[in-house]
Amino acid sequence: MISHNAARDLPIAIVGGGFSGTLLAINLLRYGVKVALIERNSAQLAKGVAFGTRRPEHLLNVRASNMSAFPDDAKHFARWMDFADADEANRFVPRLTYGTYLRELLVEALAKAGPDAQVIDGEACSVDFGDGAAHVRLADGDVVDCRGVVLALGNFPPAPHGVLEGLPGHLYSPDPWDRSAIEGLAALDHVLVVGSGLTAADVVLSLESSGFGGKVTVLSRRGLKPLAHAESGPVVVPISDPDLRGADLVRAVRRRAEEIGWRGAVDALRPHTQNIWRRHSTAAQARFLRHLRPYWDIHRHRLAPSVAQRLEAMESAGRLQYVAGKLCGADEAGGQAVVHYRPRGQDGIEAIAVDRVFNCAGPDGDLRRVEAPVLTHLLEAGHVRGDVHGLGVDVDHLGRVRDAAGNAQDRLLAVGPITKGEAWEIVAVPDIRRQVWGLARFLADEHWVGGEGL
């Protein structure tokens, strides 16, 4: 039996040592809270998938000036990079550099915390609650006793695409973040990328940097492509939290975009986006996801200007093409993948023969398909359920995970992209750093004393 006082002296266990989990650990340690950071892939510790890339062409999609790990020290990353002026702060640096920054911050925090912090190299398989505490069982049989568990599992791999799953492995790459996915492709002639977001842009750049000289076709429902950041900025005029909803809000943003430009209009919403999402009903949120999400994504989640220029150069040279259409079928013929799709706005079916297909359709939100033993156990035990939109884990505004009956749990919480259903905008560094800062204060019994802007 663990007494209440003894439980309070146990650490917070964080399952997942990528960006969200690492930053939460650092913030908790700043407040004197004991931490056990559990990560199954030591190579991704303090980096995760996004910042664990080894490819220098993968740049941050946020300016260096807004990439501080701490909302109460906005210039921390710029100082770490030794950026002294506005021109340098406007740079979009390689993600691998940012991964180094995070790892250094974690090492420093661990050194200061001493025995109050531990990093555990292992895979969490189950969580049991009892005796006023939580108990995380690892794959090797060890058990981590803690006073609470935070799931920081990052983005899940892309959802399996039923049309493509029948293709053989040498023709189909279901996970674009698999480091072996682009190996040996230099001699191929034609590659198909399904999905046209930021991940698709990463794949295209990696192909080009690896010596691929053929053609890339990017297929998505609407044929949209991410837009670019301005060369400098942003210069944003702060606005109060808009109380408009639905179509009225969309019309207001469009009018504002005509006055000051679309970037300024969208950026002004940044401090309020999560509140706007929460004020809308479930039905209104679903309409947004069904009709407006692709357009919001390309305006909100932008490319570094240099990345956009490289992609535009490939388009101009005829090596990159964006196509709007719906996948209808795929099979192997003559050593290639023959993919059938219906062009947007048309009734007929067209076919394209390619040497490799990449699934860049975005992370899967179906918790039943995610290959994470701890999540599977929590689902089966009724401690976790998916959010109403199928975007991730259902949580309340504090990050407490709702069980199968809808009850928020004080000893099981979640942070980062898997909480998208509650917060919507929770995939970029500025949003996650604010979330983990608030969660750290909640777990440390500190008071929230302010927020942040852009």
Broad CATH class of the largest domain: Alpha Beta
Distance between the termini: 47 Å
Shape annotation: globular
Main sheet: strands, sense, barrel: 7 strands, mixed
Give the full name of the CATH homologous superfamily of the largest domain: FAD/NAD(P)-binding domain
| CATH architecture assignment name of the largest domain | 3-Layer(bba) Sandwich
CATH topology grouping of the largest domain: FAD/NAD(P)-binding domain
Helical region count? 15
Beta fraction? 15-25%
Strand order of the largest sheet: 8-14-9-10-11-12-13
Mean pLDDT: 90
Radius of gyration: 22 Å
What this model shows, in words?
- By secondary structure, the protein is an alpha/beta fold.
- The protein folds into three domains: 4-156 and 364-443, FAD/NAD(P)-binding domain, CATH 3.50.50; 172-227 and 303-359, FAD/NAD(P)-binding domain (3-Layer(bba) Sandwich); 246-300, no CATH class.
- It is built from 15 helices and 16 strands.
- The strands form three sheets. Strands 8-14-9-10-11-12-13 form a seven-stranded mixed beta sheet. The chain has a six-stranded mixed beta sheet with strand order 3-2-1-7-16-15, covered by helices on one side.
- Helix 2 (19-30) runs parallel beside helix 6 and helix 2 crosses helix 15.
- The longest helix is centred in the N-terminal third of the chain and has 19 residues, at 95-113.
